[in-house]
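Objective 1.3, modelling of assemblies. Example input:
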Amino acid sequence: MASDLLPPGAPVAPETAGDTTPGRRGRRPDRLREPWAVRWLLRVVTVGYVFFLVAWPTSLVFRNAFADGSQAVVDALSDESVRLALQLTAEITVWSVLINLVFGVTIAMLLVRYRFPGKRLLSALIDVPLSVSPVVVGLSLLLVYNGRDGLFGRTLENIGIQIIFSAPGMVMATTFVALPLVIREVVPVLQEIGDEQEQAARSLGANAPQTFRRITLPAIKWAVVYGVVLSLARSLGEFGAVKIVSGNIVNQSQTATLVVEQKYQNFEQTSAYVVAALLAAAAMVCLVVVALLRPKETS
Amino acid sequence: MSINVSGVTKKFGDFVALDDVSVDLPTGQLTALLGPSGGGKSTLLRIIAGLESADSGTVTIEGNEATHLPPQKRNVGFVFQHYAAFKHMSVAKNVAFGLEIRKRPKDETARRVHELLELVHLSQFAHRLPAQLSGGQRQRMALARALAVEPTVLLLDEPFGALDAKVRKELREWLRRLHDEVAVTTVFVTHDQEEALEVADEIVVINDGRIEQVGTPDQLYDEPANDFVMSFLGPVTRLGGSLVRPHDIDVSTTEEPGAVRGTVQRMLRVGFEVRLTVALEPDHAGAAASLSAPTERETVEVTVTRATQRHLHLEEGQQVWVAHTEGARAVPERAVLPTPLASGA
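Predicted structure (tokens):
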């Protein structure tokens, strides 16, 4: 992933330079190659690993989703609770991706371009969502924002804002979990491009917002897109944190992933598989779209 | 005076980059800030541009107090060592940037960009991306971009430092001609004394956060304020208790009055010049002293032309007499001269 994230126009080593056998580029000289058997063993192990762990199970979800024919799929998707859950998931995802986009780029700029006390602490804190279980995230939000004895929750509830068991809490939980993704994509690119272009823009008369919009943003565009897509995929699939803060109320605070679990436990296997396949497909589409977009920029 | 720097001090942690520096840079001239790496010359330039802020002291540009102005309000053009090209914009867009920020009419911008690209000989590359240009072309683009906003002063930070030797030479001649054409007050930072001597009207020598000397290239070369300036502006060697340029020493194969006897210890030919290392005979040539190993004896570096070397049949191990060339400038060794005051120069 790291090599994909070089900023457009970054110096790229000339390909095939000095290579007299272009067809065999990337191969090691014969002398350094492992014996035939070792090479095949490595291939079989790697492919087998990925197949049995990722490819096969995921494909079975799709097969099961369509096992009872397309009418079953349509029926499953037109179920009231499924429809509402998909809608809720879409809303929550959009909000949390937007929030993470704005704050992610801002925090990345802060971390790379400014020096301030506590910077290392901030940088470490940003990785917390990656290392802490989403269940813990859900519980911690519950402690602060629940309406009965939460630290902020009671005050907010008194003025009519309900966080827990409603959309704001679910957006917060999802945002929390996906927080590092944009930042961790953007930070290395910002470091790579340096701040000379920004200084040049300033000396040419641009103020800070103009410099950001016309110089910095175009340079980190692809990192931002990548971060957004990762956040999108992560937000669509969030389960643990959302389950705790949402209360999992059918037709009200149930997201797609929660519906999958519930349908599965209620022996509505087809519905569960259909929604699961939909979630998987959405994530795959995200990754494919990025893969298709990127090469245009670098060529 | 176009740029006036007064009492500027800048520290990075414990490191003192500039120590109470005061200097006046004249209008319309091409001034070089010359000094070794880490001497503070780039810091001074960046403080003038507003890219760095001074801990104390003031900067005035064309009579305007600029100490606390942000860079975009100082109307200075800045050129970076590594070009700082806007990678996602075409050459023409790069040059137009400052004008677009100033919301100049489109046709005026287009005309000005065209003029500037003509000036830097990049017209045919207007639609290329910076990545498709060579280093020298990128730097010319950066220069056009800085000139586009009609800056009061043009500041260049080691502008040719990242280029190869040949392009560097071409570009500095070109910069000199360009300056004669455009005549904007220009300050450039360099650690290359040849570059400074060749291009600048005036040179400010900076070392260790302090200004060593200010003067024209000739003044600096002929009347260096101290041994640092002398040794920084070109090679020096020691003969008869004073510092002198290696090419300001006469070599002869016969005894001359006032000349010191020595032996050619090493000889290195570099193109048209030949560099000799001559081991001197001890002043009071006692029998014991002359027997000491040649490597322990005092040596002097001498540069002669290839022609001279052939004419005198100079070779290693030969006995020669060396003396100061008449009219050559020599500085007493470890001269303790009064601190040269920049503002007084």
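Chain B touches chain A through 30 residues (CB under 8 Å).
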